[in-house]
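Re: the multi-chain job from yesterday

Posting the exact lines I submitted so nobody has to dig through the queue logs.
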Amino acid sequence: MGTPTPKPEPVFNETPLVLQARSGDLAAFSKLVEKYEGKIFRLARHITNNQEDAEDILQETFLKAYEHLDAFQGNSKFYTWIVRIAVNESLMKLRKRKSDRSVSLDEQIDTGEDVIAREIAVWEDNPEDRYSQQELREILDEAIASLPPIFRSVFVLRDIEELSSEETAQMLDLTVPAVKSRLLRARLKLREKLTRFFKRKGDDIFDYL
Amino acid sequence: MEELGAYLDDQTAPEVRLELEQHLSECPNCWVISDTTKKTIKVYKGMDPYPIPPELHNKLLSALTRITPRQTGLGPGIGTRPKH
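And the result, structure tokens for all chains:
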């Protein structure tokens, strides 16, 4: 008597949907697709830098996830589980293309400080407000596309998908310190690329470095 | 440099953080780099995912109708204890 009923979780609880989908309920799985397809597509597009590959990866990821839902143990979030599938698919695509183009995840990373901070200019407070969504997307995508694959992958998983350094390390088969150092260099390289779009108008670049 | 990485992720020990912030307040170049790198991260985090073209979404849904989830009945289920 008077036992308080537990308060419902405010967060989206996907477990019932996953359980229904596992027993073959496609409508339940479609809800998971709708929730995550945009993020998976973006992830694949960024890692592979290729629209067609990203379309294939989107499809493969959800087909594999649906078919192998019985292997999902529920001790990680469903989203993290499908990101793992999508990352594997993306890395496979990258490796396949390695033969015809110089794409490698294991390429030598320059360790000098030369790439860092050639452009020192103050940015607007909300520099993104200067551009339309479409323009901004193009600017940001182009900057990511200019990074080497390993930097792109680390940046996308850590700063866009907001996975932990540990999860990122595991997915990319790197050590945690390697993730951290690549992440910092990716961030600094992007900062460098974006400066010409986001610097405060009227400011000249300080050239007293 | 390593400290800048930890600082951007808010994972610096308090005393190192104070020291860094003191330096940033005195060194315009470092301040600009730190501030613009923070803004870089913020701008990317603020972006919505791509809208999926409807034909791509529909293609995926129609491919899914041809798949049947495996029912091994042996794998550990959600919330169940793995078998040994």
